[in-house]
Amino acid sequence: DFLFFWGAVFLITTTLVAFLKKENQELIPAKEETKGITDTYRLLFSIIKMPAVLTFCVLILTSKVGFSAADAVTGLKLVEEGVPKEHLALLAVPMVPLQIILPLVISKYTAGPQPLNTFYKAMPYRLLLGLEFALLVWWAPKVKHEGGFPVYYYAVVVLSYALHQITLYSMYVAIMAFNAKVSDPLIGGTYMTLLNTVSNLGGNWPSTVALWLVDPLTVKECAGAQGHTCATAETAEV
């Protein structure tokens, strides 16, 4: 029902735009910096060769390594400790209004001449929240009872998620504002696409590596089988 409703809204909205929105007939001459795919990639290569851009790309590709495990694995580990998936899904609902409001609030602080200051200030708090997420996973079996988990545990999880969203969006909005500020207006689309792609890649590859490392770094114990570590998938199955 949820998907059907928003699918209908999407179809109606795009149909109205197609029929009611009129194109501007006045042609505004603009300088063409690129003429095709080859020129576009040649331009991207020339941009990324600039020392400042290259340094920024290296920094942004490695800046989120410290958050990767907490962001990618916490939910999976909570489910592993017995927290129902449907409860975690419901806990995401209160985050939606927060995710709508946060960019509006944070944009006031990133509109100045130094938008990355917000990025720097949010980073240590997000690192500390990673430790707090680890404590949440450790705490889960301690408070679990036959009926599930107490309400105060879910309250702590919601509060932790809310604080995490604040730090996450502070860094996200700040980096987007910085990318928009430094991009050359003549090639703004190409410039911003490159920087935003690097920013997205800087958040995705650490999460992928963290998920890949979960299994080999997890300590496993075999109950009732002395001398076996169950460290590999083969031994765990036996």
UniProtKB/TrEMBL annotation:
Q: Where in the cell is it found?
A: Membrane
What is one Gene Ontology biological process annotated in the Swiss-Prot or TrEMBL record?
Answer: acetyl-CoA transmembrane transport
According to the UniProt record, one GO cellular component term is: membrane
User: Where does the sequence pass through the membrane?
Assistant: 6-22, 43-67, 87-111, 123-140, 152-175
User: What are the alphabetically sorted keywords of the record?
Assistant: Membrane, Transmembrane, Transmembrane helix
* Major subcellular site: membrane
GO MF annotation, one: acetyl-CoA transmembrane transporter activity
> What name does this protein carry?
ACATN protein
Q: Which organism is it from?
A: Erithacus rubecula (European robin)
